[in-house]
What does this fold into?
Amino acid sequence: MPIQWFPGHMHLTKKAISERIKETDVVIELLDARLPGSSANPLLHQLTGHKPKLKLLNKQDLADPARTEEWLAHYNSQPDTRALGLDASVTAPAQRLIQACRALAPLRGGMAKPMRVLICGIPNVGKSTLINTLTGKKATKTGDEAGITKMEQRIALAADFYLFDTPGMLWPKIIVDKSGYNLAASGAVGRNAYDDEEVALELLNYLRQHYAPLMEARFKLENTAGLHDDELLTEIGRKRGAVLGGGRINMQKAGELVLTDFRAATMGRITLETVDEFQAWWAAGMAIEAEKAKKKNKSKKGTREADAEAEAEADAEDHGDSGDE
It folds into this structure.
């Protein structure tokens, strides 16, 4: 089932970004290096499309390094865009961010024209943790849960450099089903919006195709190629003790264990999408949306024509009644 999550406070975030962008010089978008395409917000692109952008691939220490390089090259090839990888081991991240933003907006700087930077990202991408690292103090609340930050904050990283932090925001409709599952697997979606077992099955299906050795080593499995996804999850549940009475496997608990291991990178460094994969998913999603819109317009047209025909028939009957009197 497609995953969607857009709670009420995200409407307020959208409105706040729309207002703030008018006075913004550079937009920083924090992405999850494990899903760089799925964690890029298309709504944010619409709201900030004309502004220079700095893409930060956060949590790169959890991601496949070869794929991270591929994604960095992809974003760095785009106009008015720079991309950097970040993780907890990066020293002096504030200086890297400030230098990158100044390169994107060289005419801003100094007390007369201070740099104004908006930092955005999906929920639970690590933005609050990054800001606390940048400032060297606990400026924002953090937690392994989507939707912690609820208000915009202004943070001074230098005398002439202001960073405006906004709450994490998804978009009203996730048109790429695979992106919805990847976002849920990463923890960017509220727990009430998805089923652990369903998301874990999607995750295992991808891992067995691209990271089978890591998955098998973590869960002490052998010969998984011939197993269906649900059989694989059953075996993992058995190995990890998610067993109910009578030897039945608690599939929900098994799914939760798989997601926890992925988020903690205990399986190893994994990235759930390549540039080519994501672009194919996006193209397919857009084609489906276009077909839906076509059918909807056709249905509306048919309804209008039927209404017009009914109105014409009613008019004809009215005129006929007038002639008989």
Q: What stands out?
A: The mean pLDDT is 86. The CA atoms of residues 30 and 56 lie 5 Å apart.
